[in-house]
Amino acid sequence: MNLFSLFKRRSSAPVARDRLQILLAHERTTRGPSDLLFILREEILATVGRHVDINPERVTVQMDRGEKVSILEVDIEIPNTVRAPSGRTRRKRSPLPAPRPV
Amino acid sequence: MAKVVVVTSGKGGVGKTTSTAALGAALAQLGQNVVIIDFDVGLRNLDLVMGAERRVVYDFINVTQGVAKLSQALIRDKRLDKLALLPASQTRDKDALTEDGVQRVIAALRQQFDWVICDSPAGIERGATLAMRFADEAIVVTNPEVSSVRDSDRIIGILDAKTVKAERGDRVEKHLLITRYDQARAARGEMLTIDDVLEILSTPLLGIVPESEEVLRASNLGSPVTFNNPGSGPARAYFDAARRLMGESIQMTIPTDKQGFLGKLFGRRAA
The whole model's pTM is what? Predict the structure, then answer.
């Protein structure tokens, strides 16, 4: 601390701007993939639903976000009808690239 | 063609109601037919800011439920009959306002007015999403302060997702209205500048309303600042913003309160 700094307070607005830019960059990316998840869920359900009867409430879609890759996990329960004789559950696992840093 | 405009912000206390009153009045003073609607169910205040609190008989929810006709609930401004107010209900049941009811009332108001201005409640809950639901355009009111800017960013995202226009693949045109701006403090590095806020929110600027004691004076008196002191800094800022809404291109300035010689000599009169 020098004599000059006694008289001059450091300006706070640039700190506010930097904090906001970092925070909002983060918040905007976390907002994006949740919409992505919704879209994926709807489209996967529509595709599977064309071939087998499924109960939309017996479907879970999850995303595990890792540093390098994220895992999309889709769990669809298929009832034992004539059209789908084998197995109760079908599980698909597919790696997705991690969300792009902004 | 009538335009439906929502005045929103996410954060409370940034000047949504003040701005709705002042912009509505300014548009009416410029010759437009304007109705302002209070969407803040249970916490209505637009009537108070407009000085019409003793004239409320029926409210928005009464109209949606068929208890009153729209013409019975609309309060014509005593100073300017081109301006009307539809007050919010003071009921504690916030679910009494339905999307279907809002849609019907807004459709009816579109037939009678040039501008339908919806004063949104704070927050991102039902009341706020209903206020923006049928909007053609949005005015996002922001203070140059971190929490307000963050909440504005959030509300901009919601405008792009939850409005009827957005769901049809169209866009709600968004405008940023920066209020309580203090140019001297921004110049000293004590407050986010206009450029800082614009860079962060990347939304076109509608106007800059300076911090001014005229705003409190106007609400004390129940008179929008554009009526109460048309020459004051905030009033000129709201007139410019209203003209920009009407499509005029006006150079962006930060109007300040001019103080005349007598004013300086005797100080401010009490309001």
Answer: 0.78
